[in-house]
Design goal:
Alpha-Beta Plaits, globular, alpha/beta, 11 helices
Amino acid sequence: MGDGLVQARGLRKSFGGFEAVRGVDVDVAPGEIFGFLGPNGAGKSSTMRMIACVSPRSGGELSVLGMDPDVDGPRIRARIGVVPQLDNLDTELTVRENLEIYGRYFGLSRAHVRRKAVELLELAQLGDRGDAAVESLSGGMKRRLTIARSLVNDPELLLLDEPTTGLDPQARHLLWDRLYRLKGEGVTQIVTTHYMDEAEQLCDRLVVMDAGVIVAEGSPGELIARYSTREVLELRFPPGTAAPVETVEQLADRVEVLPDRLLLYTSHGDHLQAELARRGLTPLSALVRRSSLEDVFLRLTGRSLVD
């Protein structure tokens, strides 16, 4: 299928009569951060579990590190790191022990995992918490420890399933910094997320998934340029007031009507806002912003990423 680190052709996953992944094609190049973007239930996690060799595929072709997961699952798992959607740390062990004992599962020597644990604790900014109980850590610290643990075997490929779900903005940005550093060290990463800003910040390329299929693929910038305009004017009107859809449709490139606001897609948001004011339209609030992957998903599926 080529030279990609991960390659899939017509990949499918079914659970009884339900088809969660319905024939997707994926190519992940060495050294890149590749993203699966979509709402809950889109098929992202099912795809990741097949790549991680913990869920057999129902159909199609799949190659991970040049091997077939159905045949070489143990060899693949020895060379990848996995960050699950929910932390699964051993709460009966200390922070350091979570790293050292996990490293032993890969057949690494005690001396090696001790040295590796020191390195990973510094990477996760937990150098002063090595002897602390896991339960004493904050949510962001636990997430950083989970990522550190996934690196104990020096993986060539790191799989991260919703890595920042439930974290506050400061913890999310700290985790993004850790992932950027790993990319600089040559670690290939595959990330699933339903956060549009996370995908834009992290991913070199991504696919947008919905209902088990890929509906678009490209870099964040390419997708925004292809499916949206440069700017968006958001208008909110007082409750009970009819939104002037017919009027604004004549002025914008495209209009999306949401329950609480109108989205007007245009190349010049400020000019459009001034023209609406000249015509006597007085929204409760108006905001000009740049287009995002949220707008791409809305264009492709008719709903927002978080629906």
